[in-house]
Amino acid sequence: MQVLGGGMTSPARVVAIGGSTRPGSTTEQLLRMAAERVHPEAEVRVFAGPALLLPHYVPGKLSDAAHDLVAAARAADVLILGSPGYHGCLSGTVKNAIDYLEELALDDPPYLDGKVVGCVATAYGWQAAVNTLSALRHVVAALRGWSTPYGIAVNVSDGYLTRAGALDGKRLDGQIGIMAGQIRQFLQLTGRDLTQPVAVRAS
Fold first, then answer.
1. Whole-angstrom Cα distance, residue 48 to residue 21?
2. Euclidean distance between CA atoms 16 and 69, whole angstroms
3. pTM given for the model
4. Engineering a disulfide at 132: which of 8, 16, 62, 85 sits with its beta carbon 3.0 to 4.6 angstroms away?
5. pLDDT digits (tens, 9 = 90+) for 92-105
């Protein structure tokens, strides 16, 4: 939460990026569950499904959609990144979207420095899910972000789907709660308490 002119406050901004180009993918469902759990008053934006249909990243050449993603990441207090496991690693589509964060290189601070980032992954198999989560965490480290100690890897074939084919939120509730709690703790430790006004940070 930030203090604006005149003492007004705005909620924390949570930006989730990932999933597949298919709307409502299991990874997108997990991203939304995690993002919405951070705080009930948080502003949540999700870049998933068709929003991931971006041109291959070329430095300095951004479509309107890519510019929107970069601007949202720049303004975010919290980022949550998620990918399906494709051939044991994160998908090319998600990697391309993350590559656009190179546009934050000249910011002060650069990249995701000072931002807390939660990582989630889904796959049909534990090996792919865990490898994908690990790859996402390495990417966050390279971008100087602070990964939550707890990440979420889900093997969707291991009883995590309901009969309707959706992710079972009840089974994931505990894991999501841990990660959301660590995000809130990070924000509080860095002077960005989600329930109390704090000083404006330089953008």
1. 7
2. 10
3. 0.89
4. 85
5. 999 999 999 999 99
